[in-house]
Design goal:
It is a single chain. 15% of the residues are buried. The protein has five helices and no strands. It is elongated, with a radius of gyration of 15 Å. The chain has 80 residues and is mainly α. It is 59% helix and 0% strand.
Length: 80
């Protein structure tokens, strides 16, 4: 199973647990109805900002992990 499909399944499960239709979720998140359909079908070309709106409504948090994140934290979040 691809990561996109795992995310799609998690979003669908949360939407159903919240007893929201795709149209209702789209309206609350401020996105188009087809966006929810595309996300739940595992489409990989969803804009990050759009996905974040949907995740926020469903109270889903995504964590980034990387071997470099700890190094970034240790440098005081320096940018450059």
């Amino acid at each position: 199973m691809t990561q996109s499909q795992v995310l799609a399944d998690v979003i669908r499960m949360h939407r159903k647990a919240a007893r929201l239709s795709r149209a209702q979720l789209a309206e609350i998140a401020g996105v188009g109805k087809t966006v929810i359909y595309d996300i739940e079908k595992g489409k990989e070309s969803i804009r990050l900002n759009t996905l974040r709106k949907v995740l926020k409504v469903l109270n889903i948090r995504i964590e980034l992990t990387s071997p470099l994140i700890e190094s970034l934290r240790n440098t005081g979040n320096e940018k450059g």
